[in-house]
């Protein structure tokens, strides 16, 4: 096991299962750093079709976004476009939701573009904000829904049930009734 994978449960799991892992260094002063173009070449060589991020907090390099149009997803712990953008992550999001008096929150799965949290929204799940909620209590309920929603969206992606309206809005086709969308 490579030492820098020890901090990433997903990478550790993949390595143990024989799934190829690419670690894109977060600091330019590391010896094993490579460019966004190198990352695209590596992903293409592995025949990667989609990139699913799990609350990734940094901007994705433009070269990667151009190489994978409509193929990179991320999840955010609020109902975007509210409480999104630079600086809105983790407990900061849930504290801001509660402080605002919003009655609902919940996870958003969105396509990644060159800005923070501004890509097309693919799916959302509503979670009530209760009168006496703490940020930790709200975060736990949102996280519970995040896990379910991402599995549903991933299945729709793999089953090719994501379509695009003429105006550029993505829709998920119902598995049970292909004439219905959500």
TrEMBL record:
Record's protein name: phosphoribosylglycinamide formyltransferase 1
PANTHER family, per database record: PHOSPHORIBOSYLGLYCINAMIDE FORMYLTRANSFERASE
Catalytic activity field: N(1)-(5-phospho-beta-D-ribosyl)glycinamide + (6R)-10-formyltetrahydrofolate = N(2)-formyl-N(1)-(5-phospho-beta-D-ribosyl)glycinamide + (6S)-5,6,7,8-tetrahydrofolate + H(+)
Record's GO cellular component terms: chloroplast
InterPro entries linked: Formyl_transf_N, Formyl_transf_N_sf, GART_AS
Keywords for the protein's UniProt record, in alphabetical order: Purine biosynthesis, Transferase
Stated family: Belongs to the GART family.
Catalytic activity, EC: 2.1.2.2
One MF term in the entry's GO annotations: phosphoribosylglycinamide formyltransferase activity
Any one GO BP annotation for this protein: 'de novo' IMP biosynthetic process
Pathway per the UniProt entry: Purine metabolism; IMP biosynthesis via de novo pathway; N(2)-formyl-N(1)-(5-phospho-D-ribosyl)glycinamide from N(1)-(5-phospho-D-ribosyl)glycinamide (10-formyl THF route): step 1/1
Domain Formyl transferase N-terminal: 7-153
Gene source species: Sesamum indicum (Oriental sesame)
Name of the top EC class for this enzyme: transferase
